[in-house]
């Protein structure tokens, strides 16, 4: 109870009421939206909290899975095209305006935090463009490999994670990094292309 009173004191009573009502409304709308997603073959747990202006798309039923107590922020795009499959674990925070696209398999482990404006994909366009431009709307126009983000990973803002990458458990990827190669467990990686700069001590 003391924690609640402290929050009221810091934010002001009106602000506290506004935030409480906003969260309650968001939770209620999330349940309705998840109900209709599940009717359409999406595997989204009812405990997931959905922000505003989200697009979730799958070509085949049961291709998008979102686990318990996860949060999908405002403006996020989660798209599993062609034979793609996206598996988002439990207690994952996918923050505002991040994009997750899959044509193969893309996994985000339990407890991971994805900061705003990140791009995560498991595919590339085939080249040369002149040879494949007529296949831009078909699977033949793309190549890809499974992309995996481990458990309890922290991804900074504006990070790009590309096809075939595996990011190990408890890793940290610095803001603005472009991850083109796999990152081991318990490492901090930064830069373009991302490189390990430090091992995290357990």
Entry keywords:
six-stranded parallel β-sheet; UDP N-Acetylglucosamine Acyltransferase, domain 1; 20% helix; alpha/beta; 202 residues; 2 domains; 32% strand; 3 helices; single chain; eight-stranded mixed β-sheet
Q: How would you sum up this structure in a few lines?
A:
The chain is an alpha/beta fold.
What is the CATH level 1 assignment of the largest domain?
Mainly Beta
Number of strands: 22
What is the total number of structural domains? Answer: 2
Q: Roughly what is the average pLDDT, rounded to an integer?
A: 92
* Overall body shape: globular
What portion of the residues fall into strands of 2 or more residues?
A: 25-35%
As a percent range, the share of helical residues equals 10-25%
Please outline the helices and strands.
Layout: H1 2-11, H2 13-39, E1 43-44, E2 49-50, E3 55-58, E4 64-66, E5 71-72, E6 77-80, E7 85-88, E8 93-94, E9 99-102, E10 105-108, E11 113-114, E12 119-121, E13 123-125, H3 129-132, E14 142-144, E15 147-149, E16 154-155, E17 160-161, E18 166-167, E19 172-173, E20 178-179, E21 187-190, E22 195-199
Parallel strand pairs: 1-4, 2-5, 3-6, 4-7, 5-8, 6-9, 7-10, 8-11, 9-12, 10-15, 11-16, 12-17, 15-18, 16-19, 17-20, 19-21
Antiparallel strand pairs: 13-14, 21-22
Helix pairs in contact: 1-2
């Amino acid at each position: 109870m003391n924690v609640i009173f402290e929050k009221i004191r810091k934010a002001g009573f009106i602000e506290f009421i506004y935030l409480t009502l906003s969260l309650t409304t968001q939770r209620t709308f999330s349940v309705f939206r998840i109900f209709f997603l599940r009717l359409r073959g999406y595997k989204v747990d009812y405990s997931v909290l959905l922000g505003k202006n989200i697009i979730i798309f799958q070509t085949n039923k049961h291709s998008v899975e979102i686990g318990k107590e996860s949060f999908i922020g405002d403006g996020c795009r989660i798209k599993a095209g062609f034979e793609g499959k996206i598996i988002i674990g439990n207690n994952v925070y996918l923050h505002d305006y991040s994009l997750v696209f899959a044509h193969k398999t893309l996994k985000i482990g339990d407890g991971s935090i994805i900061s705003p404006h990140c791009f995560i994909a498991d595919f590339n366009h085939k080249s040369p463009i002149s040879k494949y431009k007529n296949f831009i709307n078909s699977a033949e126009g793309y190549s890809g490999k499974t992309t995996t983000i481990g458990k309890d990973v922290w991804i900074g803002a504006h990070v790009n994670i590309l096809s075939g990458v595996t990011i190990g458990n408890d890793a940290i990827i610095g803001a603005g990094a472009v991850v083109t190669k796999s990152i081991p467990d318990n490492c901090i990686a930064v830069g373009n292309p991302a490189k390990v700069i430090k091992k995290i001590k357990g």
